[in-house]
Write a structure and sequence with these properties.
The chain has 348 residues and is mostly beta strands. Helix content is 8%, strand content 51%. The chain has three helices and 15 strands. The N and C termini lie far apart (72 Å).
Length: 348
Amino acid sequence: MKKINYFSTLIIFSFCGLIMRGQDIHFSQVHETPLFLSPANTGFYNGYFRAIANYRNQWSSMNNAFQTYAISMDGGIFKSKKRPAFLGFGFTLFSDVAGAAKLRKTTAMINVSGLLKIGKKSALSVGLAGGAAGTTASYNNLTYASQFNGNSLDPTLSSGEPSIYRPFTTVDVGAGLAYEFATFSRDQDHDDEMSFKIAFGAYHLNKAVQEYGPGSSYREPVRLVGAITSLLDIEDTKFTVTPSVVFQQQANYQELVLGSYVKYRMSTGTKVTGSKTQNAIGLGVYYRNKDALIPKLIFDLGDYSVGMSYDVNLSGYRSASNYNGGFEISLRYNNLAGSLFDTRREFR
């Protein structure tokens, strides 16, 4: 009976993995993946140049079922006090590896955005993204029910499955819109900021055919994203809170992530002149609806930031995962991160 239950569990997890591959990658650190939320976030941030690296290891208790790597870079160009607008330019590169078949999807996208001042405290951005996605797999690594010899799975036995899989490359297109309202108050040794950003993104607008085999007609569904992110410096204190809400939908899959972290500014910075940098440590918690509780730790060291989080699985899989979900780490470099309003004055 134990052998039968074990074999049944393997089949169930394999099937669930195939279902999940119909969805895009996702990261739990929503503040550290802006270009995956909307192309309009390109160049729309505090600073001149930004580079972020992300790594996620999900379902480690099930042989690291998903591993995701991502890099993004972006910045603003053509900034000038004489112009009420400028352009944002950037790119994203990510690779996602899943399961025993090492199903890998690698996507490279170029992002362009147009940013426009629409008030003394607000700005609007429209962005486009375009690129290519390549998919490969090693299906020879898979085992099937036909290879069960009565006692165990024997990979030396013929599976009887036809080898029809082939690697393929598709074109990918996305678009987005973002609006931000921001204010700040100056002090002799630091500046306090309050900002709210609403961003919308749509990815895979061209619904490219996923050619896993001859005659395949499956089209990648559009992924829709709505995000509200904020930063609130508590005046006359060294504390900052960052509440955020992100909702994503792709085909029948929906995901809601909400939460906040609180940062303690060990040394406060001047965000107008950039003459003093800010160092801070933050701790918070997020919740992915019906899926995971996500504690997060972040360190800000001037222009650099390191974020770490872990998904504590709360879904129906918790009996098999033992509450283990996914570890995630982010590394961010934001040139002149403390000069948000100095940067904006160049085009306001």
